[in-house]
Amino acid sequence: MGNENIAIYYIFGKKYYIIGCWDNDTPKNKFDFYDVDDENGNCINEGNPFYNFPSYNELREFIEENRLN
After folding, report:
1. In which order are the strands placed within the sheet that holds 14-22?
2. Is there a contact between 65 and 48 (Cβ–Cβ < 8 Å)?
3. Model pTM?
4. CA angle, 67 then 3 then 28, to 5°
5. Where are the domains of the chain?
């Protein structure tokens, strides 16, 4: 399994990293799911991956709903 930092969003004055994750059998340049790390390297959606690339608004809503701001 591997992962790659593919985007950075600035939301509520904090930096969030979109991490694309894949298994060994996943085609090159494709991702199985996406995790989001905060600026301290903590996965904020652990156990609840995004299966499509999260938009800025989707991530902002996730942060608000989970009171992470």
Report:
1. 2-11, 14-22, 33-38
2. no
3. 0.90
4. 130
5. 2-65
